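Incident log, support desk, overnight shift.

02:14 A customer reports that sequence design results differ from what the structure should imply. Their input is reproduced verbatim below. On-call engineer (initials T.W.) acknowledged and began investigating.
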């Protein structure tokens, strides 16, 4: 609720604070149990920061984060530690978080022992079981991370999160580094695991065609702000924000009759340290009018839980 994360901008020999980056600037989302919420935007939109503040990898600046009704930021450290296994983060490149000298089975088992979730003699069986549910086997358990392909490494990353028996998985660009054919396999794995384990996902991606296949709800972020949220079906059928339309017009669709109007964005995303006034999107919006430069559009419900922030809607 009203989540904000500001980073100080430092400069000079004395490292003085000269400004701030509003990486996440007052966004609110809710994710129901068993649901998949897709958070979409270009790099620099703040979507990863949302994920990191939820699991407290980085602390929020303001707002409230609740998990199963519990305010995560009011919990004492030891209570938070008990909850941590229930919220797991999966990264784009699990390789960077795997110690190259530690065998995969040990890396996965270590987390279980650290959290006291099993006895040492039970760990191997638990690891084998979770590897199997991720499409890997005992063949993989004693190997080192460098012996695996990108897709297999992501399966290991997923297995390492799953072994803690989480309820919520925050997946930050988990398929972005993979070939398209492998992407589909990993997305199918996410879907299968959701059914068999009743998982809830926050799925972060810059690619709408990836979230389309997995998410029931989608939020689109631009420069730290949410510009549109809706159910997946509503968003794809009736996108209202010009930025969403532009992202969607870049997604290839198989039915020519449904051809969408192609919207090409001018330029790159502006620096979050110095965002445009009024509607932050006005410097790239093909429909911008005078008021857009001065007035911040309100994030409004335009019906059936479809929210959008644009003066023209
Ligand atoms: Fe474009 Fe104006 Fe709408 Fe912003 S408020 S998206 S600049 S039309
Ligand atoms: Mg990111």
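02:41 Re-run completed on a clean worker. Output:
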């Amino acid at each position: 609720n009203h989540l904000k994360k500001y980073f100080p901008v430092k400069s000079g020999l004395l490292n003085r604070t000269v400004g701030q980056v509003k990486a996440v600037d007052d966004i609110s989302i809710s994710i129901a149990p068993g649901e998949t919420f897709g958070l979409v935007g270009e790099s620099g939109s703040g979507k990863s920061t949302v994920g990191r503040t939820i699991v407290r990898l980085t602390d929020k600046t303001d707002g409230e984060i609740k998990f199963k009704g519990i305010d995560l930021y009011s919990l004492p450290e030891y209570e938070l530690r008990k909850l941590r296994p229930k919220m797991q983060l999966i990264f784009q490149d699990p390789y960077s978080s795997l110690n190259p000298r530690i065998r995969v089975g040990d890396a996965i088992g270590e987390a279980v022992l650290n959290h006291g979730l099993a006895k040492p003699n039970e760990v191997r069986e638990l690891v084998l079981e979770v590897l199997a549910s991720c499409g890997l086997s005992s063949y993989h358990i004693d190997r080192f991370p460098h012996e695996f392909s990108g897709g297999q490494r992501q399966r290991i990353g997923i297995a390492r999160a799953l072994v803690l028996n989480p309820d919520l998985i925050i997946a930050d660009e988990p398929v972005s580094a993979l070939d398209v054919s492998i992407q589909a396999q990993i997305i199918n794995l996410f879907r299968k695991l959701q059914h068999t384990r009743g998982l809830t996902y926050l799925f972060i991606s810059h690619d709408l065609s990836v979230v389309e296949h997995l998410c029931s709800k989608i939020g689109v972020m631009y420069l730290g702000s949410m510009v549109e949220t809706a159910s997946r079906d509503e968003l794809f059928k009736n996108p209202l924000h010009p930025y969403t339309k532009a992202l969607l017009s870049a997604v290839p669709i198989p039915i020519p009759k449904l051809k969408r109007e192609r919207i090409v964005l001018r330029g790159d995303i502006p620096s979050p340290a110095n965002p445009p006034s009024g509607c932050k999107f006005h410097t790239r919006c093909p429909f911008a009018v005078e008021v857009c430069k001065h007035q911040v559009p309100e994030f409004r419900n335009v019906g059936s839980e479809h929210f959008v922030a644009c003066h023209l809607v």
